[in-house]
Design brief:
One of its GO terms (biological process) is synapse organization. This protein is mainly beta. 7% of the residues lie in helices and 44% in strands. It has three domains: 102 residues, Sandwich (Immunoglobulin-like); 97 residues, Immunoglobulin-like (Sandwich); 96 residues, Immunoglobulin-like (Sandwich). The strands form six sheets. It has a six-stranded mixed sheet with strand order 1-9-8-3-4-5, with no helix packed on it. Strands 11-18-17-13-14 form a five-stranded mixed sheet, with no helix packed on it. The chain has a five-stranded mixed sheet with strand order 20-27-26-22-23, with no helix packed on it. The protein starts with a helix and ends with a strand.
């Protein structure tokens, strides 16, 4: 009954009384720093965190249901976290959660009694019977890693050393990126059919010894036709994926995953290799043509599977470019372009091997014979 009355009375305290109480708790915490030595590990990004020893801190009677041994807990960044502090229900004491940052000489008070006093809205106190003062972190971030203490102090004797339950929170927050062969971070790439596609997955800020990278394509594990090269160094690993002579069927969303902790994806579009054919004026595919002297020659070069408007067709005769008598039309929207070569009143010296080229990607040729 005394406990109920005290908490009920706390709810009726004026704001001035609450502020005064908080200042009293802060003074006691700072004054007691030489009594209870923090066992926190450095949670900076450059140093791998070290868990606390689970040996008991206090030899006196414990104020906690499960003893006052330090507790190590681990959460994935972005998930909600709960730190438990279940005290003896017969104890008439004040309970506070504090965070001891290795970068600050002063602890930060997060909760007092059943109230949150932190400016961080992610942090709250969730009380659960019987007398479990649970510290709630709604969305854990990497900077939340470090030492937390559930402190119980006696209001009747503020100078009495507080009883402490230490909880070290380890935050797992791998950072994963994908780079191309030029070491540029990528999320979408295009390659021509037949190219060798290479990506490197780099995962950093790792803390576990059994982390491993796997590659997936559209939710399926990538196995055949892939070479893996994994390296591990200080808190980082990498894996290189290579697709040899990639074809259009290899297009899709590729994901590298570090266990099930974090991942990165890149969309790969393998462009179909353009096809080039030569047709005559009757729209027939030709590989060799004969004409009489004085005839008109009409040859059309058709390129399909063209992906960009930058592609261009040029005509050549015996490796010499033809600059006259050529018309050009394109329909890149439907993946094709064409060019028509017109030669009027041909003579025997017009005979030769005629080639149409789609940039330097592919070509088609037809021998032309002009007969007397």
């Amino acid at each position: 009954m005394r406990r109920y009355d005290r908490w009920h009375g706390l709810g009726l305290m004026t704001s001035c009384e609450i502020v005064a109480s908080l200042w009293l708790i802060m003074i006691c915490l700072v004054a007691a720093e030489d009594v209870t030595t923090p066992l926190y590990a450095d949670s900076s990004e450059e140093t791998s965190p070290v868990f606390l020893s689970t040996e008991p801190i206090l030899s006196s009677d414990s104020a906690f249901k499960n003893g006052d041994q330090p507790v190590n807990t681990m959460y994935l960044a972005g998930t909600p976290g709960i730190l438990h502090c279940e005290i003896d229900m017969e104890l008439e004491d004040n309970v506070a959660w504090v965070y001891k940052s290795p970068k600050s000489a002063y602890p930060s008070i997060l909760t007092f009694g059943k109230f949150s006093v932190s400016n961080d809205r992610r942090i709250s106190l969730s009380f659960r019977d019987p007398w479990n003062f649970r510290l709630m972190i709604a969305y854990i971030k990497r900077r939340d890693q470090g030492l937390y203490e559930c402190q119980v102090s006696t209001t009747e004797a503020p100078s009495t050393p507080k009883k402490v339950k230490q909880v070290f929170l380890k935050v797992i927050d791998p950072e994963v990126i994908i780079k191309d062969k030029n070491s540029k971070m990528v999320t979408e790439c295009e390659y021509k059919a037949g190219s060798n596609v290479q990506f490197t997955c780099v995962a950093s800020h790792l803390d576990l010894s059994d982390e491993n990278i796997t590659w997936w394509r559209e939710g399926l594990l990538v196995e055949g036709g892939v070479s893996y090269k994994s390296e591990r160094w200080s808190r980082s690993i990498e894996s290189t994926l290579v697709l040899h002579h990639a074809q259009h069927l290899d297009s899709g969303n590729y994901t590298c995953s570090v266990n099930n902790l974090a991942s990165a994806s890149v969309f790969v579009n393998i462009l179909n290799a353009p096809e080039v054919i030569i047709k005559d004026q009757r729209n027939r595919v030709v590989t060799e043509r004969y004409y009489k002297v004085g005839s008109a020659v009409e040859l059309t070069c058709l390129a399909s599977h063209v992906e960009t408007p930058r592609e261009n067709i040029t005509w050549w005769r015996e490796e010499v470019p033809i600059l006259e008598g050529v018309s050009y039309s394109s329909n890149v929207e439907h993946g094709s372009i064409k060019s028509t070569l017109m030669l009027h009143n041909v003579q025997r010296d017009h005979s030769g091997n005629y080639t149409c080229r789609l940039n330097n990607l592919t070509s088609a040729s037809v021998p032309v014979h002009v007969l007397s």
